[in-house]
């Protein structure tokens, strides 16, 4: 038991680093994912991941495989898309979804164009898609800083953010914090994705952000409960995924996300709140109540 | 209204006419003494074509220096180059996974040269359990090659292949890979591998390079018989250089002690080099740069490096070096230098030509293992 669960982390430094990296991502990204889910913006995460990619690619073109340049490039591209999207949706008739789609597609195409013009065929995607098994010190520092920043920002914006989820019109009518809250939140999405793809790769980073939040929905109706359940699921998926990758020779990133995905499917089927089982039990109860007055 | 079949016959007619035109130009071209246009899929083949063709050919290389052929995306310009090419040189062994689509799209009508035709292809090794077997194989191979190494007859090579494949491949390899695709499917069904069945990085063995350039020479001579004599001459010169380097590397590697013969690289591209010169190559990543390493692979590799006290690991010009750097740090091994697995360096780098590339790789490995 010890050998199976703890041994790998004791024996190998890269496993400890992978674990720390995953935990940092889980702590930062899952609360953001919960709010994305609550605001019906889960797909925004995916769109943002695409918007970031070209920025990071440009960073790579400018200064090679440098964590700093790629992170800054990704942040700039992500923020730009986030801000432009917010401005367009708040000042014109176009909705948030459509303007986000438009901007991220422009960003993606621009990135691909730049890379092609640069003429390098080095597999950029592979360079950009980090692997959780190769986290260096600077990458770990980056991930932990992002997690810390996320928690602080969330603590500061918690109230308006929850209000914005529940009733954005009400928030807008009573407070001027609506727009800043929205932008702060989008910035959180961007920095967590940028951090995540250093370790997991873009698509995997979206996975660890969205899946635990979506699964948590079947376990609690309260915001606190959602956050805790999502975090526990994400941490569990990270550890389990790493161990599966270690014991069965499977690639780590997909292993972690598939474990999170399984947690989502199980929650969907058997979770206590609004899952298939819960609804079925509920409907049976009402049936019996009706039958036996 | 034009019916579909009508349209098809119109198209077929058009093709016939274009085809006839191509034939006419083909017949006329040598008179103009224009260099014949050759497209090579990646930089190593491009260099070989230049060496054999000299001023009689103009070479277009699709995947340039420092480019990764495994994951290349062809562009319309590539399709245009292929369509206009008289000779197309590919590596084969499913190295250029995107080639089939490009050939279809470009409607290529010229001479296709598969450089690995007749090469004694290695099967994919799956992780460490096969390395020992390979090691044994290496030694046998070495003996064979020493025997007929300086013999420039192609026949010698053919004999060599037949000898070496007594065991598993009896059926498939006798017909000299005339139709690789068939071969691969057969093998694929048999072993259930996902990629092609054979390791495509055959150029890492200079003995295979002999076959590569002979295939190229044959292709050029067929399309441009007027200059066949010159191709023949250049080929002979080039083969002499290849043999010289081969002997050099053999001598230098033979000096390495038996416990200093394991090399760790980031992707599995040096099995042919290992077989030719009696080294064992290990890598955390699979045969293609596309695959992702698992924690188990990395852990096993680290254990092996510790156990065998391997002193140096190597990064490559194409692959992400972060994983190798991590492994180096964890095992205390040095990062020994940059190896060139599947693409030449730009002309100001250490490996601007194929022979320079092998010389550089051998030197870097030799210096770090000592």
Model description:
The complex is a heterodimer of chains A (293) and B (370). Chain A is an all-alpha fold and 293 residues long. Chain A is 84% helix and 0% strand. Chain A is globular, with a radius of gyration of 20 Å. The termini of chain A are far apart. Chain B is an alpha/beta fold and 370 residues long. In chain B, the strands form three sheets. Chain B has a four-stranded parallel sheet with strand order 2-1-3-4, sandwiched between helices. Chain B has a two-stranded parallel sheet with strand order 5-6. Chain B has a two-stranded parallel ribbon with strand order 7-8. In chain B, helix 11 links the parallel strand 5 and strand 6 (280-282). In chain B, helix 3 packs across helix 4 (99-106). The longest helix of chain B has 29 residues, at 4-32.
Oligomer kind: heterodimer
Strand content of chain A: under 5%
Report strand % of chain B. Answer: 5-15%
Q: Give the overall average pLDDT of chain A.
A: 85
Briefly note the structural class of the backbone of chain B: alpha/beta
Tell the overall outline of chain B: globular
- Based on CA atoms alone, the radius of gyration of chain A comes out at 20 Å
* Span of the ends, CA to CA of chain A: 54 Å
- Which chains share the greatest interface? A-B, 36 and 33 residues
| Low-pLDDT residue intervals, each spanning 5 or more residues of chain A | none
Q: Which outline of chain A best applies?
A: globular
TL;DR?
Chain A has helices spanning 2-5, 7-11, 13-38, 42-63, 67-91, 96-118, 124-128, 137-166, 168-174, 178-199, 202-216, 223-248, 252-270, 276-291. By secondary structure, chain A is mostly helical.
Summarize the helices and strands and which ones pair or pack.
The complex is a heterodimer of chains A (293) and B (370).
Chain A: H1 2-5, H2 7-11, H3 13-38, H4 42-63, H5 67-91, H6 96-118, H7 124-128, H8 137-166, H9 168-174, H10 178-199, H11 202-216, H12 223-248, H13 252-270, H14 276-291
Helix pairs in contact in A: 3-4, 3-8, 3-10, 3-11, 3-12, 4-5, 4-6, 4-10, 4-11, 5-6, 5-10, 8-9, 8-10, 10-11, 11-12, 11-13, 12-13
Chain B: H1 4-32, E1 36-42, H2 43-53, E2 57-63, H3 76-84, E3 87-90, H4 99-106, E4 111-114, H5 131-148, H6 154-164, H7 170-174, H8 180-191, H9 206-223, H10 228-254, E5 262-264, H11 271-277, E6 280-282, H12 295-308, E7 312-316, H13 322-331, E8 334-339, H14 354-369
Parallel strand pairs in B: 1-2, 1-3, 3-4, 5-6, 7-8
Helix pairs in contact in B: 2-9, 3-4, 5-6, 5-11, 9-10, 10-14
């Amino acid at each position: 038991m010890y050998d199976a669960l703890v041994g790998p982390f004791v024996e190998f430094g890269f496993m400890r680093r992978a674990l720390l990296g995953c935990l940092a991502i889980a702590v930062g990204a899952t609360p953001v994912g919960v709010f994305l889910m609550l605001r019906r913006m889960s797909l925004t995460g995916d769109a943002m991941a695409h918007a970031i990619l070209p920025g990071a690619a440009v960073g790579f073109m400018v200064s090679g495989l440098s964590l700093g340049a790629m992170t800054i490039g990704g942040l700039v591209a992500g923020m730009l898309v986030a801000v432009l999207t917010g401005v367009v949706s708040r000042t014109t008739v176009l909705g948030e979804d459509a303007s986000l789609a438009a901007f991220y597609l422009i960003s993606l195409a621009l990135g691909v164009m730049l890379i092609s013009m640069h003429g390098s065929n080095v597999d950029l995607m592979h360079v950009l898609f980090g692997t959780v098994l190769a986290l260096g010190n600077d990458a770990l520092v980056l991930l932990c800083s992002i997690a810390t920043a996320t928690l602080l920002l969330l603590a500061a914006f918690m109230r308006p953010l929850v209000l914005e989820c529940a009733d954005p019109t009400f928030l807008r009518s009573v407070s001027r914090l609506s727009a800043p809250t929205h932008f702060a939140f989008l910035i959180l999405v961007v920095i967590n994705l940028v951090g995540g793809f250093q370790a997991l790769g873009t698509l995997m980073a979206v996975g660890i952000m969205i899946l635990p939040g979506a699964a948590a929905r079947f376990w609690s109706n309260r915001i606190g409960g959602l956050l805790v359940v999502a975090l526990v699921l994400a941490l569990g998926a990270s550890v389990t995924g790493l161990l599966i990758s270690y014991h069965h020779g499977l690639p780590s990133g997909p292993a972690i996300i598939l474990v999170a995905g399984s947690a989502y499917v199980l929650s969907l089927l058997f979770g206590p709140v609004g899952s298939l089982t819960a609804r079925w039990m509920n409907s049976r109860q009402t049936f019996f109540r009706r039958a036996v007055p | 209204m034009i019916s579909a079949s009508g349209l098809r016959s119109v198209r077929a007619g058009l093709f016939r006419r274009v085809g006839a035109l191509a034939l006419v130009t083909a017949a006329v071209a040598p008179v103009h003494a224009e260099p014949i246009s050759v497209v090579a899929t990646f930089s190593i083949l491009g260099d070989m074509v230049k060496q054999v063709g000299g001023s009689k050919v103009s070479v277009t290389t699709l995947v340039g220096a420092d480019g990764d052929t495994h994951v290349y995306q062809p562009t319309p310009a590539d399709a245009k180059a292929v369509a206009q090419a008289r000779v197309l040189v590919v590596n084969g062994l499913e190295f250029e996974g995107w080639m089939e689509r490009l050939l279809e799209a470009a409607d290529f009508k010229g001479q296709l040269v598969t450089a690995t035709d007749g090469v004694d292809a290695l099967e994919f090794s799956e992780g460490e359990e096969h390395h020992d077997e390979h090691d044994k194989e290496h030694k046998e191979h070495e003996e064979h090659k020493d025997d007929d190494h300086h013999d420039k007859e192609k026949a010698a090579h053919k004999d060599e292949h037949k000898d070496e494949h007594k065991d598993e491949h009896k059926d498939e390899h006798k017909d000299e890979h005339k139709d690789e695709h068939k071969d691969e499917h057969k093998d694929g069904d048999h072993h259930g591998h996902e990629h092609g069945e054979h390791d495509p990085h055959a150029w890492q063995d200079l003995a295979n390079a002999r076959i590569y350039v002979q295939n190229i020479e044959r292709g050029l001579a067929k399309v441009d018989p007027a200059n066949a004599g010159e191709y023949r001459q250049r080929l002979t010169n080039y083969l002499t250089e290849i043999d010289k380097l081969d002997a050099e590397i053999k001598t230098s590697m033979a000096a390495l002690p038996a416990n200093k013969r394991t090399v760790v690289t980031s992707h599995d591209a040096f099995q042919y080099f290992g077989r030719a010169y009696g080294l064992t190559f290990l890598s955390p990543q699979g045969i293609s740069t596309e695959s992702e390493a698992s924690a188990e692979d990395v852990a096993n590799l680290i254990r092996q490096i510790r156990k065998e006290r391997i002193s140096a690991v190597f990064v490559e010009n194409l692959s992400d070096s972060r994983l190798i750097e991590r492994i180096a740090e964890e095992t205390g091994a040095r990062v020994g230098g940059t190896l060139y697995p599947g693409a030449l360096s730009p002309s100001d780098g250490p490996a601007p030509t194929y022979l320079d590339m092998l010389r550089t790789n051998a030197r870097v490995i030799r210096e770090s293992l000592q």
